[in-house]
Amino acid sequence: MTGLAATASRNRVWFFAAAFLLCSAMIKPVQDRVDARFARSPSVDPDMLYFASPAAVKSLSLGYQSLLADLYWIRAVQYYGRREEAARRQVRYKNLAALLDITTTLDPQMMDVYRAGSSFLAEPEPVGAGQPEESLKLLDKGIGFYPDDWRLRFDKGFVYFWALKDFRKAGQVWLETSRMRSAPPWMEGLAAMALSRGGEVETARALWERQYQNSSSREVKENAKNHLLSMQVDEMLWTVEFLAGRYAERRGGYPARLDDLVRAGYLKAVPVDPSGVPFDYDPHSGKATLSPGTRVRYLKVPYDYRDAFLQKLSSIFPK
Amino acid sequence: MRILAIAGNTFRENIRDKILYNLILFALIMILSSIALGQLTLGLEAKMIIDLGLTSVSVFGTLIAVFIGISLVYKEMEKRTVYALLAKPVHRWEFIVGKYLGLLFTLLVNVVIMTVGVALTLLYQGGTEPATFLRLLPAVYLIYVSLALTTALALVFSTFSTPALSALFTLFLWVIGHFNADLLQFATLTKSTTVGWIAKSLYYALPNFSNFTTLDSRNIIQSAAHSQAVDAGAVLWVTAYGLLYCAGLVAVAIMVFSRRDFK
């Protein structure tokens, strides 16, 4: 009897061990089946935002909104980082702005979220969300919370400059920022660069001149000087090109040397760059360039005012 | 003296409870996991540690307060040890106050352990200024006051209800207590004077837990995470509110317990 009971007990152990192994082996195929059904189901939207209202999320946080803000921020970063998944969606980053809005409503003090989040939104597709308007909204929200911090205004100018290509607006934002007490000294220079690129050349020149005269920083002074000299070089080159064109209209060909422009009465003397080095001249195209031996540190900023400048020259030197 | 003896016994009894160790262990694991989660925040590691750490202190502290608080008196009645105790020259009010103080001391020890866990995690992560550690203290203090209030609620229910129902009632009131501001807003928005009056009365009658999470419209954990100072005057007023409410609840618990028939 005892022997029979021991055998029965041993058999029971083997039975349950076999049952355990069988169940374990079945788990994977069953889970795969479940996953496959979910993947096929059209009703499941992987890009769904369960709570779209930032105020509702804040209200439901039971006082733990700080941690919830971190979790929403992590979710926004993950959402942005999954590029392949985004590429499969109709709108690549439909919920990114909403996630960042919820994050900054839960914790409006997250400076890094305003800065990095606005960059995620403004960056053009396919790298970023290509939503510069949403980026500006996020930055304005941050500026509302941090009115005395220059960094968010700097980022706002950056969105206008790079994402929207609105150089004039970028320059205006940076110019306003440069007047803040906390702004770094180079902000005014940045504004001048953007404004000149946006066609507001005289404002830009005035800003460079002010920086050159008033700045106590050697680097800022040097930068302002280089911009002023570069503008001067550009205008001199455009003038030479314009006068060579006029010369060609009257004499049937470009002057062979720049001396010819002086002899013909177009110029008082052979033009030299601000460092005193004569320009190189190509008689076939009638165009002058900076000599390789120049001491001017030319900053190639593609100014937008070349046509306007040539028009001004036309009114001074009518045909 | 008798109160202290009961409080000491309650503390010793609590620290033998396995649920306490499970909750503390889980809280410490959560606090440590903030190091890993912080890596996903793009530069907000310290904030993540403080947010998750202080939230863990608050959530697990609340769970400890509820699950130990609800059995404070009920267990004594169930095991009939209360008969032996009350046969001695101990007043019923001394029994209740001693029980309450014992659990408060248990909670204090737990909160200190969890806060040390947060501080050590911050130290491990490095780059945290010494002032940040000091900024944790007001938040931890207010969390502790809110735990004292939760304990008082659990104690009241523990005197007349079963542990399961007491836990449910306490947790319901804890959740409702975070929406108190909505009641006040509802009172101002409603057109009915009676409904407005009821909503306003409920606003004052129900425990206002948002007092302990938000000071001067700034979240207390957020202030700690951003290393901002808090208004000491506001902390004092909130402490006064907490003390009054706790005292009132302990008085209710004494009243209910005094009317119970143990014959």
Q: What's the helix and strand layout?
A:
The complex is a heterodimer of chains A (319) and B (263).
Chain A: H1 2-40, H2 54-60, H3 65-81, H4 83-87, H5 96-106, H6 111-122, H7 132-145, H8 150-163, H9 167-178, H10 186-197, H11 201-214, H12 218-251, H13 258-263, E1 280-282, E2 287-289, H14 306-316
Helix pairs in contact in A: 2-5, 3-5, 5-6, 5-7, 6-7, 6-8, 7-8, 8-9, 9-10, 10-11, 11-12, 12-14
Chain B: H1 2-14, H2 18-38, H3 45-69, H4 74-78, H5 81-87, H6 92-125, H7 130-158, H8 163-176, H9 180-189, H10 193-205, H11 210-213, E1 214-215, E2 218-219, H12 220-225, H13 232-259
Antiparallel strand pairs in B: 1-2
Helix pairs in contact in B: 1-6, 2-3, 2-6, 3-6, 3-7, 6-7, 6-13, 7-8, 7-13, 9-10
Walk me through what this model shows.
- The complex is a heterodimer of chains A (319) and B (263).
- Among the domains of chain A are: 51-164; 232-316.
- Chain A contains 14 helices and 2 strands.
- Chain A has helices at residues 2-40, 54-60, 65-81, 83-87, 96-106, 111-122, 132-145, 150-163, 167-178, 186-197, 201-214, 218-251, 258-263, 306-316, and strands at residues 280-282, 287-289.
- Chain A has a two-stranded antiparallel sheet.
- In chain A, helix 6 (111-122) runs antiparallel to helix 7, helix 8 (150-163) packs antiparallel against helix 9 and helix 9 runs antiparallel to helix 10.
- Chain A is elongated and about 130 Å long.
- The relative contact order of chain A is 0.06.
- The mean pLDDT of chain A is 86.
- With 263 residues, chain B is an all-alpha fold.
- Chain B has one domain.
- Chain B is built from 13 helices and 2 strands; from the N terminus they run αααααααααααββαα.
- A two-stranded antiparallel ribbon of chain B has the order 1-2.
- In chain B, strand 1 (214-215) and strand 2 (218-219) form a beta hairpin.
- Chain B is globular, with a radius of gyration of 20 Å.
- The interface between A and B is medium-sized, with 18 and 28 residues.
